[in-house]
Structures are given as C-alpha cells and as structure tokens.
Amino acid sequence: VQLQASGGGLVQAGGSTRLSCAASGNIVRIDGMGWVRQAPGKQRELVAHIQSDGTANYADSVKGRFTISRDNAKKTVYLQMNSLKPEDTAVYYCNAEVLALTESSAFEASRSWGQGTLVTVSS
Description:
- By secondary structure, this protein is an all-beta fold.
- The protein has strands at residues 2-7, 9-12, 17-24, 27-38, 45-50, 56-58, 66-71, 76-81, 90-101, 107-113, 117-122.
- The strands form two sheets. Strands 2, 4, 5, 6, 9, 10 and 11 form a seven-stranded mixed sheet that branches.
- A hairpin with a 6-residue loop joins strand 4 (27-38) and strand 5.
- The termini are far apart.
C-alpha cells in the first residue's frame, strides 16, 4: 500500500491551498484517513481525521479554517486549508487505516503513511 501526497508549497498568510493524498495497492478497505503535521522543532500533531462514514474531527488550532474530505471511490483524502497562518507552516503527512490483501492472499491491517508535503505560510 502506498500513499502519494500532493499540493502545498508556499502560500501567503490569509491564503488557501489544498492537499491531496491518494492510496494505491491491493486495498480491500480504507477506514479512517487523516493528516498530521510537524513544524520545525516541534512534535508531530494531529490536524484532522475523517472516518469512512464522513465523520470528521479537527485540532482546535485549525477548526473553522481547514476542511478534511475524502473520495472513497478514488481512495483519496483531501485537506482544504483556508485562512492560513504562519504557524501552519509544517510538513503535512497523510495517513490511512488500510485493510489490504497480501501476496499470499492474507488480509493485513495497517496504518500507512504518505511521504509528507511541505506547506510554508509567509507573513
């Protein structure tokens, strides 16, 4: 299973950007999907998480500004980021709780991670 993240880059404060993360592989089912971020010198923190039924939760610091969504048919999770602040600058990692079929035809549950994408918000 692989997660490929895209989006991000340099954004001005107050601006918007959208991150995408597509899962691929012998996937049987994807349960929760989410985004975490790690700012320079800080610990990784949860940004947003969305369950398979669309139920979402957010870190207090991004509530009302960020929106997480998913397209189950495309096995993709999105993070729409509005009203960006310099403190949102971080590497953003997507993750997914995946049930996959292995080469030996066994089911394997795991949490997969994307490679990280940098979002830099300039003041």
